[in-house]
Amino acid sequence: EAQVTQNPRYLITVTGKKLTVTCSQNMNHEYMSWYRQDPGLGLRQIYYSMNVEVTDKGDVPEGYKVSRKEKRNFPLILESPSPNQTSLYFCASSPGRSNTEAFFGQGTRLTVV
Amino acid sequence: SQELEQSPQSLIVQEGKNLTINCTSSKTLYGLYWYKQKYGEGLIFLMMLQKGGEEKSHEKITAKLDEKKQQSSLHITASQPSHAGIYLCGADRDGGSQGNLIFGKGTKLSVKP
User: Fold this and answer.
1) Rounded CA gap, A102 and B81, in Å?
2) Cβ–Cβ below 8 Å for B50 and A40
3) Average pLDDT of the residues of chain B
């Protein structure tokens, strides 16, 4: 089954404790992205990647890092999480052609206390 | 940079009533996507529109892209409780960046039985 898998689904952590949210897709897609969703602000892009070793900042990259060492994986790293990074995070992948739908993971709800 | 504005922000309708959600872009749309999200869950792809004047339907949901390609509407006929959720429009950022999407802030739909 074609899917984008994120882990964990839920995470509560403390300020400053490094964490990684994993994302994996099994569709051989070139494009992968990370978004965060907050009430009243909608879905905002954090980082995206056009292919292995090619990443670029989205609209809200501060406080996040990503890497794309393999085509299927695109982890999101929070080196020193802060409470303002409490949010619902989504990973997405797409084939990389214009006018093709993106596939989304089920989301990771992160709470930083 | 391109922005998508959705209206209304929220909508409460009686079961069986029709409704329309609008998505207006600050720039020409080269690919417009409609997604549905159940609260706190992942995004489900509904439809993609590419050409000005294009109209697509799936079950009781119809989406249109206007001729000038700067606005899309999503129309639900005879709404049901299963239609409740958040509807998001998305677009290829700044004219077809191959899977790099921006989104509107979403329209929250509630359907009263």
Assistant:
1) 26
2) no
3) 90
